[in-house]
Amino acid sequence: MDQIGSFAPIILMFVVMYFFIIRPQMNRQKKEKQFSSALKKGDRVITKSGLHGKIIDFSEKLDAVVLETGAGKITFDRSAISLEMSKKLQPSTTDKK
Questions:
Q1: For residue 83, what are the CA distances in angstroms to 30, 45, 48, 58, 68?
Q2: Which residue from 46, 30, 52, 57 is spatially nearest to 82, judged by alpha carbons?
Q3: Which whole-number Å values give the CA distances from 37 to 2, 49, 54, 58, in the listed order?
Q4: What is the pTM of this model?
């Protein structure tokens, strides 16, 4: 029983790390994957590098999106679209009066 007591702080540390570090990261990745798969033509998005654009086409073979920007058409990987910044462009349902 004394041996289990000596390992309790280490076990507790791993449990805390799981709930405060690993689990939130897994949830964030899950939300980003859902966001990426829910993209559709006409959506206004912002890439992680800060480029604003409108989705005009998808390339399933490359798993990429074609964005129309002020400079022309640019192809980006789906993972380059930022969830947090793009959500700011979408109209919120709570803003309606």
A1: 11, 9, 9, 17, 18
A2: 46
A3: 51, 20, 16, 11
A4: 0.71
